[in-house]
Amino acid sequence: MELDGKTLKRIREELRLTQAQFADKIGVSQGRYSKWERGENAPAGKHAVRILELSGALNPSSPNLVPMGAGGPVKQVRIVGELQAGVWREAVEWADEVSVPVTPPPGLENCYVEGFMVKGDSMNKYYHDGTLVFVEPTISTGKRPKSGQHVLVQRRNKNGLYEATLKEYVVNEDGTRWLWPRSHHPEHQAPVAYNDGVAEEVTITGIVRFFTASAP
Hints:
By secondary structure, the protein is α+β, with helices and mostly antiparallel strands. It has a domain at 73-216: Umud Fragment, subunit A. 17% of the residues lie in helices and 31% in strands. The chain has four helices and ten strands; from the N terminus they run ααααββββββββββ. Strands 1, 2, 3, 4, 5, 6, 7, 8, 9 and 10 form a ten-stranded mixed sheet that branches. The longest helix is centred in the first third of the chain and has 11 residues, at 45-55. The termini are close together.
């Protein structure tokens, strides 16, 4: 769901809230929200997650959550950061977190996952801007990805900054390992070799287990 000004106004009016009331529920000033609705900038991070939650897009009874378990248990999952190619940050995770109700698909009810919001188009064959992906950590669990799985990849440059993105993990017949963007965008189609000795430290830190639907 693209949170442009028209979409924000539609959500607010469907909830029968004034701008001041809606801004209060999101946790921003009315002035800041008013600029979003006019198309001046757009909500991001935890504010975008909160708007999706208020709109019902993250309601566990909604078909917008795929895949999902029919009638399964609902649990609160932390949304801890954003994933975006080409954006380098001091930390991958937000300083403040937000939690959303989620119905995990069958077999993953007890799987520990953390949520991340996808930004940009570096993996848009599968995840469009605004998609929430729920990732099982690899470092704390000792899990290793299998070829064909989608993974959370962190890169650390020489300045100590981090980039976090999604890639498809592919192991060729000769044993070489690659990280593919799987994007329609021409700037995000070249794979990254997953090995030692690269200029930037590349680490797989999670495996995507499920995600929310997002309109192209």
